[in-house]
Design goal:
SGNH_hydro_sf, Rossmann fold, 8 helices, hydrolase activity, acting on ester bonds, alpha/beta, Lipolytic enzyme, G-D-S-L
Length: about 210
């Protein structure tokens, strides 16, 4: 029975496009892309969802807290669940926030650190070996109620697919450019609507079916 871990931020958690900042909402299991991907893979698959709104690949967030650093979260997730067969990794959107001052290369370096954790002998041995699918998020649109947090993020995010693809090749992991499948909402420029979740879930399932 293959077991899947989906590790990411609010778009893995299932946060809808934001209308009112600070109001917590989450799509149901019939809408979120991780649960749709699991359903598309078939009843033999199980799923552990590890999406945290605000999570970054590498930064302690001065506003949202130290636990937003994905390096801490990934270790906790990999030691909480298992044994795993496949893990998806989709982060980088929050790393483009203005307050972090990160270049595309710095953001990619953060993803590299997460891959080093997941692919290192400690975690691979713990789970008996598991495969990784690296997903590059679609480009940010600097608009909507939280646009002030993402000044300059659009250009940074558009540079990430090529960098992530090269990183995936170097590490021998699977790669999916989500920006070729979906785009962020016009409402807030960050999150995905229900139709995008469905398309992304189907695309992820197609890749994962070749890995397990």
């Amino acid at each position: 029975m293959p077991r899947l871990l989906t590790f990411g931020d609010s778009n893995t958690h299932g946060t809808p496009p934001i209308v009112t900042p600070g109001l917590y909402q989450r799509f149901d299991a019939d809408t979120r892309w991780p649960t749709l991907a699991r359903a598309a893979l078939g009843e033999g698959w199980t799923l552990a969802e590890e999406g945290l709104p605000g999570r970054t690949a590498q930064f302690v967030d001065p506003v949202m807290g130290a636990h937003m650093d994905g390096r801490l979260g990934l270790r906790m997730a990999l030691e909480s669940h298992g044994p795993l067969d496949v893990m998806t990794l989709m982060l980088g959107t929050n790393d483009t926030k203005t307050r972090f001052g990160a270049t595309p290369e710095m953001i990619t370096a953060g993803i590299a650190g997460l891959l080093d954790i997941a692919l290192g002998p400690l975690m691979q041995t713990r789970h008996g070996g598991f495969r990784v699918l690296l997903i590059c998020p679609p480009a940010v649109k600097e608009q909507g109620p939280i646009a002030s947090e993402f000044i300059g993020a659009a250009a940074k995010s558009r540079a990430l697919p090529a960098l992530y693809a090269a990183l995936a090749e170097a590490h021998g992991v699977a790669f999916l450019d989500a920006g070729r499948v979906i785009e962020t909402s016009e409402q807030d420029g960050i999150h995905y609507g229900p139709a995008e979740h469905r398309r992304l879930g189907e695309a992820v399932a197609q890749v994962l079916a070749t890995l397990a």
